[in-house]
Amino acid sequence: MKKLLILLLTFTVSMSFAQDKKPNVVLMLADNVGYGDISAYNLGARGGMVTPNIDKIAKEGLQLTQFLVEPGCTPSRAGLMTGQYSIRNGMSMIIAPGASGGLQEDDYTLGKLFKQAGYNTAYSGKWHLGPDAKNHPQNQGFDKWLIGFKGSTDGVLYKGKMADTGMPQQIIDAATIKLWEADGPGEPKVIGDYDFERRLSIEGEITERAINYLQEQKNEDNPFFLMVGFTRSHFPNDVSEEFKGKSGAGKYGDSMYELDYRTGQIMDAIENLGLDENTIVIWISDNGATITSTALDEVNIGDNGQFRGELGDAYEGSIRTAGMIKWPNNIEAGTRTNEMFSIHDFLPTFAGILGEKLPKDVYFDGVDQSDFLTGKQEKSNRDHLITFIGDRIGCVRWNQFRIYPMLVNRTGNNPSNGGYLGTTEETMGFPQVFNIETDPKEQVDVLPHGASWIMGPYMKIVAAYKATLKDYPNPPAPNLTKF
User: Fold this and answer.
1) 4-18, 43-57, 174-188, 220-234: the lowest-pLDDT one
2) CA 229, CA 215: separation in Å to the nearest integer?
């Protein structure tokens, strides 16, 4: 009897430990992948361009069909890292070459949350959240920056473009983008140049270092948080010989083929190392695809599905993209939802999952979605999202309605009315309102047709946001045209 009691006690303690064991987390962030670029979302509309490895995450977990982000690389990454609208930390525009700004020492980040919860943390890949060491992963809650670069993926084109315009070689050499790594806080270490040739191999290097980290963590006592910042399908989408012609859908298709392949390598590593049962896997894109604001030989190739817009504007095609979450034994496989979930929600959601308290002196725009993800509640805790273009509210999304308080004029190089590349125009009277469910291309303003009641919720959302600025004022917003 005594032996039986000891066995029962041992079993109970071991079961309790298993239930309380914190999950590992692998978050893969793609670059400029549109809603229509993933076969799980486009229902085969892109022909031979299929993404079976990415689709598998959706099949084995939760597919979000209304995953919302911010309209650019830097703003979305800032929203992901801080759980705040990017305007709250001065990053509501893409950080341009030579510009300052980025994450600051006192910003509370996703990396810092996981460190607070006792995790080992690492980042592999593109960062784009500031040019200085204080802005970089190793000083923002990540133990290691495995490999990466500071700015935009298309930086590999700068030297060639500068040479074409006759810039002195000294200036061209100074514009060379570097690849970095860091093991611990402080200054990162240069490990090479990020040039056009390196662009062809960088996705493999980012993936290899991520897999090496997974192997290192297999026998660690602490759980781990690994974030992978892919570079595809941001232009230029040239690929190495290994992937040329593999998709049958041109250069962009080959780039997506490699992105899917690299995703599969990481998923295979998680499974082969026996980590899959206790690992949350997240796969998301930072914003919609570029349609016109891209390399000349890639115009009109990216696909944002049925939605109007592209990277850099306030339209749905810019801010609705792919999002999938796999969590064995917690999220039912094959689940699909059209409930609203934003990139800002990850930080407070993980705080909820891990039982961690968030700082009281920071205002978080993200909401805790842990009960929604695990099926404890049917509805999302989010019903609206504000999109900023610089220092302006470009759009308010409330339920199925998109409400525009300003117009963005067409520009010669961006016929989709790109917010970052267009010019704004003040409006008088009522804003424009579109029903995104019945009118995904946003062609019919519903406001003049008996929908003025929408102004009530709209004004309430804007007023609530403005009220937070009294205690949590925004820093100056970036602006490249007004000084």
Assistant:
1) 4-18
2) 18
Spatial contact of 267 and 56, defined as CB atoms under 8 Å apart: yes
Give the pair of three-digit tokens for residue 301: 């190739």
| Residues in Cβ contact with 270 at an 8 Å cutoff, skipping those fewer than 6 apart | 26, 214, 276, 279, 281
What is the topology classification, in CATH, of domain 385-468? Arylsulfatase, C-terminal domain (3.30.1120)
> pTM score, two decimals?
0.92
Residues 6+ apart with CB under 8 A from 362: 84, 108, 472
Cα 249 to Cα 34: distance, rounded to the nearest angstrom: 16
Q: What is the pLDDT of residue 410?
A: 52
CB distance 86 to 388 below 8 Å: yes
Q: Please list, in sequence order, all residues whose beta carbon lies within 8 angstroms of the beta carbon of residue 260, skipping any fewer than 6 positions away.
A: 50, 51, 52, 53, 54
Task: Give the pLDDT score at 424.
Answer: 63
Amino acid at 57: I
What residues contact 300, with CB distance under 8 A and at least 6 apart? Answer: 291, 292
CATH topology of domain 22-383: Alkaline Phosphatase, subunit A (3.40.720)
Smallest Cα–Cα separation from 418: which of 274, 317, 269? 317
The encoded tokens of residue 168 equal: 């002195």
Cα within 13 Å of Cα(469), Cβ side: 12
- The continuous run of DSSP H or E covering 341 comes out as strand 341-342
The token pair that represents 209 in the structure block: 């270092």
192 sits in which H/E element: strand 189-193
The pLDDT, as a whole number, for residue 105 is 93
Q: Please report the pLDDT score of residue 409 as a whole number.
A: 59
Domain with CATH 3.30.1120.10 in the chain: 385-468
